[in-house]
Amino acid sequence: MTWIAKPRLHHPSLSRNAVGYTRRDYEGKVSTLCAGCGHDSISAAIIQACWELDIEPHRVAKLSGIGCSSKTPDYFLGNSHGFNTVHGRMPSVLTGANLANRGLTYLGVSGDGDSASIGMGQFVHAIRRGVDMAYIVENNGVYGLTKGQFSATADQGSVSKRGVANSDAPIDLVGLALQLGATYVARGFSGDKTQLVPLIKGALGHRGVAILDVISPCVAFNNHAGSTKSYDYVREHNDAVNRLDVIEGRAAIAVDYAPGEAIDVVQHDGTVLRLRKLDPDYDPTDRLAAMAYVNLHQARGEVVTGLLHVDPAAADLHGHLGTVATPLNQLGVAELCPGAAALEKINAGLR
Amino acid sequence: MTPIAAVNDFVVKFANVNGSGSASANELFARAILRMGVPVSPRNIFPSNIQGLPTWYEVRVSEAGWLGRRGGVDLLVQMNPQTWDADVAELPAGGYLLYDSSRPLPPGRLRDDIVVLGVPLTRICAEHYQDPRQRQLFKNIMYLGVLSVLLGIEREAIVRLVGEQYRGKEKLLEANLGALDLGRAHALAHFPDGIGLQVRAADAVGERIFMEGNAAVALGMVYGGATVCAWYPITPSSSVAEAFQKYCQKFRSGEDGNRHAIIQAEDEIASIGMVVGAGWNGARAFTATSGPGVSLMTEFIGLAYMAEIPATIVNVQRGGPSTGMPTRTQQADLLSCAYASHGDTRHVMLFPEDPAECFAFAADALDLADRLQTPVFLMTDLDIGMNQRLCAPLAWDDARRYDRGKVLSAAQLEDGREFGRYLDADGDGIPWRTWPGTHPTRGAFFTRGTTKDPWARYSERGPDYVYNIERLRRKWRTASDLVPAPVPTAAAQGARAGVIHYGSTSPAMAEALAALAAAGLHLDALRLRAFPFPQSVLEFIEDHERVFVVEQNADGQMRMLLVNEFGVDPAHLVPVLHYDGTPITARFIVDAITAVLGASPVRPQPERVS
Predict the structure, then answer these.
(1) ipTM for the predicted complex
(2) B395 contacts in A (CB within 8 Å)?
């Protein structure tokens, strides 16, 4: 049994956020992933982001597919409902869940095998529909649970732990998300929490589909010379276009940057994405330019990170469908059933 | 040659070209006879293509009320030269052929043992209409006019129907009535005495309605409170989702927004995934598909079974295996649905017999899925789904409330009762569940397809697995008490043999039983309405020396289920199997049963009036 009990003791001096929770309240079970796994760093970043955003943990629905990455929702937000679905098909389940109750925050966690191979179709169509969710791909270029096979994001020519070179071209999920019109696209690195936490916060606050590709080295099978998804490779080739601060709507803005160093993007809910530009020419609201930029740097072997694109005026699936504000799962017979009198009229029309 | 003569008891078959606009005229024909109080049962027989290829519409007129397909044709309306020879060959001696005689036929194309009625439809249309589309479309209305004179169908019945169809579109209404009367005028001039087949006003329809099963399923989903529909187009189920959309627009769209969400998914896998996600999150959700769709869905169906999530799947069955006969009917997905997915799974199935039950069972399926927290299959087929069937009016009790099953509210969680997501708290095998977001600190659990302990914690311990599987078996037994009970029909005299049947077979079965009884062969019947089978099904089998199991597949799938679930001697159950893609007929059933029971064959025949 790979379930480990975690002590429930809380340190009394743990600080509380605006909704009264300590950071411990955002934790989950003890991780069973390998020590040093990038995915655990992402879980820690999710915990930090949710705590800082003052999200009530139980109002998050966390869904995943199958694989190492997809195990992680058990390791954060222990008071949230989690759903480990089937391999590659988390997006459809999340879509259905979101349709049922638009009042929750949806966090989809997936891996590169999960999203770029078996689940490519669902990844694509969830973006196309604009499902309101933060979709985090924990991308290590390898199948960990089945012990080291290449995934579809592994770079051509990168070498497996067994010394085999990958002959297939990689699928770039960020490029794909930009192409498909995702309204929030970012890439992070599990080894850079400072950059990652705000990217997650921005994704959670974004209404519409937010795709966050996080390079997350696999210490067991893909963290060696020759791998382009190793800690060393990503650190050496990281090209961050910006640094993001997320300022919640309705909260006092306490951060202040000198004019000219930052741009602000105001989202639907009032959240402000404050971007400190590292590349002076980079404009994340220009999707086409972002595509060109990412492709250019990818060709040079660089991993472009940061908030690559955001459309602050994005709509989501509920907007497209025109659904009522009340979550569909709360509607009862009075709102849903036309009743016997209407049925009698229907009967009369069928004679 | 003696022409066939019959009143209110004959079969008319229309042979058309797909895309020629004949469907509307053919349906008007059937409806007009219904309006005269005479029951009809029409069936579309169509190939898997868009247009240009042959299509047929067969209408059985039966004052006695037999709604199954009779077999045979008394009057052929032949509008498709491509299928001329085969169609004309179907007519018995004394049958009638109505055809477009605008161009002379090559010698030898007409039989001399049938009554040939030539009407120059193309020529009349060419004389009266300029527009090529009108010339094509009005040929159909014109032959309807001819038929109305030949068979004695009241003009007023057709006029009223056309009026309803084109309400607010006066120009179209007038044009159609003009074409109708052109046909009538020609027939009155050339065939003033009509023919031996006649429709006479009767009072045999009553309050019954005339409806397609797929539309009835969709309406049942609206009444039953389904709010999420995720689907992928596949014949013959697509019109379920399309009708759901139509009814939702009518009943569920307001200024405050839509009280429904309909997604045409990218494939069947995604559609069932959305249903599972919505069910997990407390919305009533369904998908509609057919056999190949179910094949794609099976992994998710297994997840929903194991993780215990409500999901309603409408399977409008068609001919298989593989792509099989996409536009023909069968009842051949029983086994693939009953045990869908890997491992030890069993799924609830409901078998409606007609649109009225399609409506009722759709709402029941949503209740059962919630109550049992499991996938529920609504098993219809093309014969019910895509044909209009005369059936009892749809009924709804306004006092009915949705059974949302065992869902703990925040207040119940607050009370501090023990919550184990997979704990058999009540001994019925059904655990309690919570919807996401219910309570800040209580009731959250992790849903997964892997095995777990009663508190939803991942566990690979053998005893935890066995506990879970045994509880699922208890839930299965509970299900057999909750599903619609089988319907017995006792023979008029003591019967040693019985018949088990289900679904769309029932009209043919009813007629077959009557014909057999008239010939002195009395059988008790049991119509199954659900899987799992209640204990009364076993009692029925044990109470009869021999039980025929009548179904529309080649393997005898229901018979296999009965043998498997009850462990009865297979020799006790005699298969009667019809699987050529057409709906089963009473004649077929009677022949099969009399062959086994050793009696002289009897056949239900249309009443002849000399």
Answers:
(1) 0.95
(2) 340, 343
Between CA B279 and CA B507 the distance in angstroms is 35
**Contact between A69 and A39 (Cβ < 8 Å):** yes
Nearest in space to B401 (alpha carbons), one of B213, B144, B225, B272: B225
For B195-254, write each residue's pLDDT tens digit: 999 999 999 999 999 999 999 999 999 999 999 999 999 999 999 999 999 999 999 999
Structure token digits, residue B111: 């039989």
Report chain B's terminal Cα–Cα distance, integer Å. Answer: 13
> Which residues numbered 536-595 in B keep a CB inside 8 Å of some CB on A?
none
Confidence band (pLDDT; 50, 70, 90) for B52?
confident
| Residues of chain A positioned with their CB less than 8 A from the CB of B400 | 333
Hey, are the CB atoms on A350 and B211 less than 8 Å from each other? yes
Q: How far is A4 from chain B (nearest CA, A)?
A: 10
Q: What is the nearest CA distance from A238 to chain B, expressed in angstroms?
A: 35
Residues B379-422 have pLDDT tens digits of 999 999 999 999 999 999 999 999 999 999 999 999 988 899 99
Determine the Cα–Cα distance for residues B42 and B224; give it in Å rounded to an integer.
Answer: 28
Task: Kindly state whether B252 is in contact with chain A, defined as any CB-CB distance less than 8 angstroms.
Answer: yes
| Mean per-residue pLDDT over chain B, rounded | 95
Tell me phi and psi for residue B289, to 5 degrees: -155, -170
CA distance A145 to B164: 64
Q: What are the phi and psi torsion angles at A172 (to 5°)?
A: -100, 110
Question: Which pLDDT tens digit goes with each residue over A64-100?
Answer: 999 999 999 999 999 999 999 999 999 999 999 999 9
Show which of residues 178-217 on chain B sit within 8 Å of chain A, judged by CB atoms: 205, 207-211
With beta carbons less than 8 A apart as the criterion, state whether B22 and B50 touch: no
Q: Which two tokens stand for residue B3?
A: 């022409």
Which residues of chain B have a CB within 8 Å of the CB of A325?
A: 256-257
For residue B305, the surrounding DSSP H or E stretch is: helix B291-307
Residues 455-474 of B with CB under 8 A from A: 457-461
B580 HSE (CA, 13 A, CB side): 5
CB distance A142 to A164 below 8 Å: no
In 3-state terms, what secondary structure has residue B388?
strand
Q: What is the DSSP string of B102-123?
A: SSPPPTT-S-TTSEEEEE-HHH
**Cα(B527)–Cα(B489) distance, rounded to whole angstroms?**
8
* Euclidean distance between CA atoms B213 and B361, whole angstroms: 11
**Two structure tokens written together for B436:** 């996401």
- What CA–CA distance (Å, rounded) separates B467 from B128? 78
Angstrom CA distances, B426 to B117, B372, B419, B431, B478, stand at 72, 13, 12, 8, 11
Summarize pLDDT for A16-27 with one digit per residue, the tens.
Answer: 999 999 999 999
